[in-house]
Specification:
alpha+beta; 31% strand; globular; Deoxyribonuclease I, Chain A; 6-stranded mixed β-sheet
Length: 314
């Protein structure tokens, strides 16, 4: 069926994203100048992104033929093309990413630097399975900095029979205007995951989400930092895991994110919404743009991005 397309060649025939065009990257010094000029407009805002990169972004699509890292490169071009200088909203500053090894994480960091012309740093958390999967947090150093004592570590919310460890990692970042954002990222078990010899149930996935929420509450400071969870929840809206997250967090988007390569119509009709930017329900911050989904870049998931506004006096 159309929505199960896995041939990377379809990328040439589907939505044509701006980042697939010939590089139009602003020279680093000009880009930095334009962004400094817009910094006052972007005060008290931060743009975050969720991405399941698919197997480290090593391939040109979903077929694992030759390691090219084209998927990772396309994603970096998407980051470059989002909220360009002069935009009403700031560029992507922090990314939560799943399905990448430590080597993949290092590659992605270098691609982000190359495409955006500015410095990025990252932190990686492994999840077992022969170092072929893990969690990455990436941040743009001219837009945010890690808060002192802001490495919150990780939490295990479940384990699969194949040795895969379901983890989430967290870090606190500080913006130039002094706001603090605690970002957590990871993914829950997928539909055909096996636990104790049986396929995982929706209730078991809900309990994973509950363990995550409990851990986040323990990790937030006093007064608590604003929390955001970027995740491949592997659960659709109104499912048990979604309802568990929705009690304390919000993501108002309705856009499907999987299967990414199906094309816009098929994705909207037959696809699934699995990827979220869950923002803590608080009077101190809220979405001012998004969450939006990205164009296709080679993963079976679309990325999701959103701009968060911090409110004064809260």
């Amino acid at each position: 069926m159309l929505w199960n397309v896995a041939d990377p060649g379809v990328l040439r025939h589907l939505e044509v994203p701006a980042f697939e065009e010939k590089s139009q990257r602003t020279e680093p010094d000009r880009q930095a100048l334009a962004e400094r000029e817009g910094s006052e407009t972007h005060a008290r805002m931060i743009t975050v992104c969720q991405c399941n990169i698919y197997d480290g972004g090593r391939w040109s699509g979903l077929k694992r033929k030759e390691v090219t890292y084209q998927t990772a490169r396309r994603f970096a071009r998407f980051v470059r093309s989002t909220n360009r200088p002069g935009s009403k909203y700031p560029p992507i500053a922090v990314i939560g990413m799943q399905e990448l090894s430590e080597t993949d994480s290092e590659k992605m960091e270098s691609f982000l630097r190359e495409e955006t012309g500015v410095d990025w740093q990252s932190a990686h958390t492994s999840q077992g399975v022969r170092d072929k999967s893990g969690i990455g947090i990436f941040w743009r150093t001219d837009l945010v900095e890690p808060a002192v004592g802001g490495d919150l570590g990780d939490v295990v919310v479940g384990e699969l029979d194949n040795g895969y460890v379901i983890k989430f990692a967290g870090r606190v970042f500080r913006t130039p205007s002094g706001e603090r954002l605690a970002l957590f990222t990871g993914k829950l078990a997928w539909e055909d995951a096996v636990v104790a010899g049986k396929r995982i149930t929706g209730e078991e996935r809900r309990m994973q989400a509950r363990r995550l929420r409990s851990w986040i509450r323990e990790k937030l400071g006093e007064p608590p930092d604003v929390a955001v969870v970027t995740t491949d929840l592997n659960a659709r809206p109104n499912s048990p895991a979604w309802r568990e997250m929705n009690t304390e967090y919000t993501d108002p988007s309705r856009q499907h994110t999987h299967n990414s390569l199906a094309g816009r119509f098929a994705l909207n009709v037959f696809g699934k919404r699995l990827d979220y930017i869950w923002l803590q329900r608080t009077r101190r911050a809220g979405f001012v743009d998004g969450p939006h989904r990205s164009p296709p870049f080679g993963s079976d998931h679309r990325a999701v991005y959103a701009t968060i506004q911090f409110y004064e006096g809260e």
